[in-house]
Amino acid sequence: MSSSSKSGYKNVPPPPGSKAGNAYTRFIPREELQDFAAWAPDSFGGERPSPLGAEPDAGPPTEADWQAQVAAARQGGYQDGYRDGLAALEGFKQSFAAQATAQVGQLVQSLDQAFDTLEAQMARAVADTAVQLARQVLRSELQAQPELVAKVATEAVNAVLLSARQITLQVHPLDLPLVADGAAELLAARGTRLIADPMVERGGCRVESDLGAVDARIASRWAQAAAALGSDVPWAAEAAE
User: Which of 162, 186, 191, 214 is deepest in the core (most CB within 10 A)?
Assistant: First the structure.
């Protein structure tokens, strides 16, 4: 039997004014207890007791703790720096690649322009060389076969319209007998008058009529042929060489 039963007190509040109130005030049921801390005689003036279940204060950090924090900070700084370095390196690589690509593009374009210019110069040089060789060959042919002037005169007279009148054929004095002998039939059929003109270079001729003229002189024919080959080498230049 509990002490409350022995003393005759029940675990209920007594009526107001009852003497049992003092006994009740000295007894606290367990279910009414909340958080509490144990007390010892040396607690006065000392450290305050910690609540039940609380971790005790660890105290100030030790040298090992500081070293661990410094090492962790160094590791974090290294990782941040490494990451930032990789990002900067990647940005530099992209910038360098873009710059190099632009420079290579400009270089290729410049080379293309230079090659185009060189190709044009080479083509012109080849054309000029071919024209000069052709001029030498033609001069040699005119000297070796002066009678070719009769063929030139025939072609020039045939180029005049059939309805043309008052036709005259002008040739170099030394070519006059060659043309008169080689183109006699054509000259008679067209009623062409043959005239010696020292201003006409050997190998060429000039035809005039009431309907126009045909310039078959060597210099004129040469200029047309050279222009067709993209060259402007004159015929008379060979005479000064």
Answer: 214
Report d(CA 27, CA 4) in Å as an integer.
10
Write out the residue range of the structural domain in which residue 193 sits.
141-240
Phi-psi region of 209 (alpha: psi -120 to 50; beta: other; left: phi over 0): beta
- Residue 144 and residue 231 in contact, taking contact as beta carbons nearer than 8 Å: no
| Tally of structural domains, the chain | 1
DSSP state of 37: -
Structural domain contains residue 84: no
Q: Which residues 6+ apart lie within 8 Å of 152 measured at CB?
A: 203, 204, 205, 216
pLDDT tens figures, 177-222: 999 999 999 999 999 999 999 999 999 999 999 988 999 998 888 8
Instruction: Report pLDDT digits (tens) over 94-139.
Output: 888 888 888 888 888 888 888 788 878 777 777 777 777 777 777 7
In a domain, 29, yes or no: no
208 domain residue, yes or no? yes
In 3D space, the residue among 234, 228, 218 whose CA is nearest the CA of residue 175 turns out to be 218
Q: Check which CATH number belongs to the domain holding 179 and give it.
A: 3.30.2320.30
Among candidates 107, 135, 139, 91, which has minimal Cα distance to 231? 135
Query: Rounded distance, CA 150 to CA 186, Å?
Result: 11
Q: Kindly report the pTM of this predicted structure.
A: 0.48
Q: Which residue has the tokens 């054309």?
A: 127
